[in-house]
Structure formats: C-alpha cells, structure tokens
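Final report, Chapter 2: Outcomes

The project's central promise was a pipeline that accepts a single protein chain and returns its three-dimensional structure in a standardized token representation, suitable for archiving and comparison. That pipeline is now operational. To close this chapter, we reproduce one record exactly as it appears in the project archive, with the input sequence first and the structure output second.
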Amino acid sequence: MVKSLSSSLGLLLLLLSAYYFSRPAIAPVGLADAMLTNIWLPTALMALCTGALLASSGFLIQNSLDNDFASPSTLGIAAGALLGAVLVRVIVPEANLQLVWVGALVGGLLLSLAVLAVSQLIGGGKLPVVLIGMALGLSAGALSSLFMLYFENQTDGLFLWGSGQVLQTNPEVLKQTTLPMLAFLALSILVLPKLALFLLGDTNAAALGLAVKPWRWTILLLAIGQAALATSIVGMIGFVGLMAPHLTRLVLRLAKGENNHVALQWLVTVIIGAALVLAAEWCSRSLLFLGYRLPTGAFTALLGAPYFVFLLFQRSGKALAAVESQNIGLTPIIHARPRVVLASLCALLGLSLFFCLRSPQDVGAIWVNQRVLLAGLGGFGLACAGTLLQTLFKNPMASPDISGVSAVAVLLIAVVLVYFPAANQWQLTLAALVGGSLVIGLLSWGLKQQLSVAQLALFGIVITAFAGTATQILLTFGSSTASVTMMWLAGTTYGATFDRIIPIASVIALCLVAIIPLLRQLDLMPLGEVIPKTLGLALQRQRYLLLAISAVLTAICVSSIGAISFIGLLAPHCVRLLGLYRHQHLLPASGITGAILLIWADRLGRELMAPNEIPAGLMVSVIGSIYFILLLLLSYRNRV
C-alpha cells in the first residue's frame, strides 16, 4: 500500500518536473525566472489545489450516496456556478473578482441542492440523480448562454472561464484562495471517520450510533462546497471528480493490498485528482490547436466523457439501473378519438400560421414568413424523428437531442464549416447524417447490451456533453466561420431562405412516403421480437430502415435549423397524453405538435426581447429540461 502511495507521489513529482522544464527556454534568463515565479508556479499550484478539491468532492459524494456515477460534474455544480457568476456580472457590472466567486459558489450550491432534493422525491436512485443533475445543468447552461449573448460587455471574460481556465497571470489570486481551499481539504479529513461507517451500509451505520441522514447531508454539503469553490475560481473542470475515485480503486486493486481504509483511499484520490488537472494544464500549454491554447477544462471533458461511457457500458453497470423501460412513461390523460385529435391539431396549426405569418404588404413579411415555414418544417421533422427513436429503442426518453444524435451532427457540421467554409446545404446535411448515424449505431449496440432506459438516456447526455465541448473548441479557436456555426449550435431560424426550405421540405416528404408502408410494423415493434416472429414477421430489416430514416430526418433538420433541443421528446409525449398509440395517428400528430411548438418558440424568441432575439433552441432547452425532470417524477409516481 505504501508502494502504491509512493507511486502516486512520484507521478505527481514527475508532472511537476515536466511542467517546470517545459517553460519557454528561448526567453531571457530574467524573463524566464519572472514567468516561472509569476505564471507557471502559481498556475501549477492552482491546478494542484483545484484538482485536489474536485477529487475530494467526488470521493465524498460517491461514498456518501453509494453512487459510482455521482460527481461534481453530474450533479450540475459547475453549470450552477457558471450561471451564478453570469448573474453577478449582469446585476453588478462592476463586480470585483471576489463577488463573482461568491456568486459562482452560491449558484453551484443551490443547483446541486435542487438536484439532490428532486432525486429524493423519486426515491434517490443511482442513475436518476445523475439524469436530473445533467438535465438541470442543461437548463442552467441555456440560461447562461442567453445572458452571455445579450449582456456581452458585462460577461466579458466568462467564456474562457466557463471552459475551465487554470492559467494564472495574477499571483494575488492564488494568495487569496489558497487558505480557503486548504481549509476545505482539512474539513474532509475530519469527516472521514463518519464516512467510513457509510461503507458498512445505512443499517449497520445506524446500529453503530451514526445519525445517518444528518451526517450524509453534512458530508454532501462539504463536498458541494469544495466543488463549488474550485469551480468559482477556475471555471468548469469536468469529470475530475468522477475519474479520480475510480482510478484510485484501480490503483489500489493493482497494488494487491488492503484497500478499505477510507483515509488512504481519500489521500490517493486527492493526489490523482491533483495530477489529472496538472496534466491537463500541461497539455493545454504544450499541445496547441491550430496555433491556439485550449482551456484546461476542454482536455478533462474530452477525456472524461469517453471514460464515463466506458463505465456505463461495463457489465456491472447494468445493476445500477433504477428505472426500467416498462415503468417509464406517462399514463394518458384522456383517450380521445384519433380523428378528433388530428383535426384539432390541424386547426391549431392553422391558427398558429394565421397569427405568426404576416401579410405580404407588411415590412419584412418575406423574412418573417420564411422563418415561420422553416420552423414548422424543422419542428415536424424533429418530432417525427423522436417518435421513431422512442418506438425503435422502446425508450420514452429517446429523442435526437437527448440521445446525442443532434449534438454529434452539429459537431460534424462545425468540422465541415472550419475546413470547407463554402459548403452548401446538401454537404452540411451529409455531414450531419454521418454524425447522426454514428450515434444511432452506438445506441443500437447499447440496446443489444441490454442497457436500461435510464442508462441509454445518460449515455446520450454524455455524448452531447462531449460533442458540445469539441464544438466549442472549434468555435473558439481557429474558425473563421464561428458566427455561422454558432447559429447551428444555438438553434435558430435566423437567415431562413427558400434555399433552406425547399431541401428540408423535400426530404421530409420523401421520408414520410418511405414510412407509410412500415406503419403496421412500427406498431408491432414495442412488443419485442418474440410475438412478431410467432406471426411470421421478421422486423430486423424494417428496424434498420426506420433507423436510417430517423437519421436522415435529424440530419436535414439539424443542417437547416441547428440543434433544437427537446422537440423530439416533447411532441410525442404530448400526443401520447391524448391516448394515441397507433403510428398512423401518432406520427402525423407528433409532427404537427412539433411544428406548432417550434413556430411559437421562434415567435416568442423574436418578440420577448425585441429588437434583440432569443434563439428558439435556447427557449426550448429551458422548457424541455423542466419537462424531462417532470417525466422522471411522473414515471416514479406511476411505479409506486
């Protein structure tokens, strides 16, 4: 055991040495010494302290909740901290650094406490708490993006901070924050004896005299405070709190020693976390991307997201599913006649067009009307794609955005725009189709591995986070088309023309024609494989064809209106609440509902802050993430 601890310390010293000797050698001696004293050493110390805090936070959270998936990243602490910092800058434009830290600290605390409170309402399962954390994180991220978009001057400097910026150019910052960070680490040592009792199980811990609930909340508050403090200082450094405890178990297992000593586990975890952030900072400085330095948080996110997926696909992870596919979903409110529902939706669509379209004589009528038509087509296509994915994967939480299909499609579009700025609509659609098909293939493989609904949803959210980080890198560094790519990232109908309307209308029409002969097979797919086989029907070929159609629908919509979130999730559920289940009614009703939702989201985005504009994607993200959490709450109510 001492050998493993020595190895960890040796690794940390090796990284520090590499960090020291990799400082600029071409600078004059005086300048090199000044940079070492004022930049490189403070940066290294900040990386060590924040990495240790995040790792300690992850260790305390995972062991107190007995949840290997829980961490500061998955509980929404970072997203809450970013929102808190943004709000401070918006409300108090002249706020100093300390006030921004306080805002970030409070934001991270409040959002993470909300995540834990909501998770307790649905029974405190292992995966639901992570799903809720990531859903609330998406909502907080959308609000942060909205404020940074419209208060650009006040929030200047928060873009890089939001990506995780450990680089220190002011030694005073380290002096002001070192004592609080060390104090939080020291408090961890004081609660380790109580944490050791949690490893025995709640029943045994209570039998030994531990007040389980008060101490659990005490430890969680300490862990949240550690992560919120680290995030408020250096920004969003993702997945360190998740990876470090798991790597500790791996190191101790390889050491073949007794590894149940909590203090030793915590110490090794802290060392590994510090080493991870220091290594990420070294990579950030040494490995330039298109001549630019990447934020430290980008490296940890690009490394942590694949590790999270690996953890999710482990065979032992199957037992962690807290919600099974047959138990998730909403009971219909009414059982209306399909024709009545379709007629009512068509009437609502007509009214929406009547109120949103403008007379040809009005100023700017062509511009507005093209946007309305594009929004309607995009909402229709995304809703149909979401309906197909939910049926094919037997997963009510499936949709192009929740499953990660849209995010990877946007990533491929960003890559094309960086290297081929003059790419046309069809080339962008092809890029989006490649990205969407890759994710759908991974989801199909996960379905064969018998992953639960909650695990598949979590897989999609992680893929979305990974693709979003990669896209932000392309946007921030080296892209001459960042403004164009940003449109697809936010999701908007801005700049709609008939050159974009005609392709999406044509592709959606062709996809609907291809789906019509398969409607009866779609009705049979939720029954599984056994019943259709007894009827002499082999549905495998039709399943792959429908997966391809859903990928095409997602690709054309994303390449036309961007990554609009939650339409593919919301619309099918709204229709199912009315009692529709046969796909000859469900598919068109979902499409019309999606069109109505996006038409009104686009109009509200244009008018709420006129003459400024809120992208429709941000509007839907906030509403959709709240609905996602309500879906989990209602599914739990149905289960009990």
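Archive annotation: Residues 29-65 form the longest helix (37 residues).
This record, like all others produced under the grant, will remain available to the consortium after the project formally closes.
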